[in-house]
């Protein structure tokens, strides 16, 4: 098992490498990209196991920084995560498109978005934005952190920031873990919709959920 100091140093080194690549908006070789992703996933698994073994399981939110973006990019490369989310970007490996997307999000004052930390480690993000004229909430958790209650804790804390009600959320019908997270936070299924899923290459049905006053 990796010790805490080694993990921290490795984490910093990885961020520095990715920050350099992002600053140059490099066209990464896909084979290299996915090899690096696999190494990172193994590292994260060891780090999370270590933190859990010493009884540390803290979830908190903070403002997004530029250093978070390489991690978000890395997380969106996972094919399983993309399939579950369903409604994702056309090409998760397109770094330029990713940066353009996030640059717009960060600059948009109508969007509230926070980075999710688990034991001080960036694990994903949660956001509030307007879609189809209605306020919505959405979140993303790196697959390495699934099944640990992080999404529920992060969303619950985020809802303390976002007071608007009703507040809506969407989830593919077969994305049961996400639906459970939303329901634990007070959301209820109110209707259905469908849309084309880039991750699945077909039309996918989804539930629309709502959080009302007093929920």
TrEMBL record:
<dbReference type="InterPro" id="IPR016181">
    <property type="entry name" value="Acyl_CoA_acyltransferase"/>
</dbReference>
<keyword id="KW-0808">Transferase</keyword>
<protein>
    <submittedName>
        <fullName>RimJ/RimL family protein N-acetyltransferase</fullName>
    </submittedName>
</protein>
<dbReference type="GO" id="GO:0016747">
    <property type="term" value="F:acyltransferase activity, transferring groups other than amino-acyl groups"/>
</dbReference>
<feature type="domain" description="N-acetyltransferase">
    <location>
        <begin position="59"/>
        <end position="214"/>
    </location>
</feature>
<dbReference type="Pfam" id="PF13302">
    <property type="entry name" value="Acetyltransf_3"/>
</dbReference>
<dbReference type="InterPro" id="IPR000182">
    <property type="entry name" value="GNAT_dom"/>
</dbReference>
